[in-house]
Amino acid sequence: KQEVTQIPAALSVPEGENLVLNCSFTDSAIYNLQWFRQDPGKGLTSLLLIQSSQREQTSGRLNASLDKSSGRSTLYIAASQPGDSATYLCAVRKGGTSYGKLTFGQGTILTVHP
Amino acid sequence: DTGVSQNPRHKITKRGQNVTFRCDPISEHNRLYWYRQTLGQGPEFLTYFQNEAQLEKSRLLSDRFSAERPKGSFSTLEIQRTEQGDSAMYLCASSFRDRNNEQFFGPGTRLTVL
Of the candidates A30, A37, A65, B112, which lies 20 to 30 Å from A78 by C-alpha distance? Predict the structure, then answer.
């Protein structure tokens, strides 16, 4: 059974700091990995998707890396802003005929203070 | 608005009552997923539709839960004889099979069972 763990559970940083969120998964036979952002009481917003054959993806100030063999992914946020405050979730899709269902971590609650 | 929509956004009900939620996916997406999220946890997979066919159900989906997707368009999730443990955020996501199966989520329906 796939298990996804995110560390740290919560993170508080001053504005402008660069930060890294970690995600690990137990079964390396994944199809892809997605990072999401969730604001309090809201749905999920897709940030980045990395295919199993890729090493990283970038979007603006966000960079996600994937090391499939070691079961790890990191989300790097450059020059953090108060508007980045949210819960960040990583999710993996199993390879094969899994119909694309995602297995999520518990999330990292990020607070960026001015 | 061409995103995933869900209705209602909030539902408060008494224990024992039946409730029904609706999800309208992105129009060209043929895959539709339901997830459940409790406070402080990541979403957990409930069920998956490809077009109108329900292809997978989680063991979390007890006999009191039923989901449909008539004609492969919108989907409904019904909970019969609600229990306090059903209180959660119910999230719907959709994807298009050929586009990396990137899943896009709706805003969710928050269910509170009193």
Answer: A30
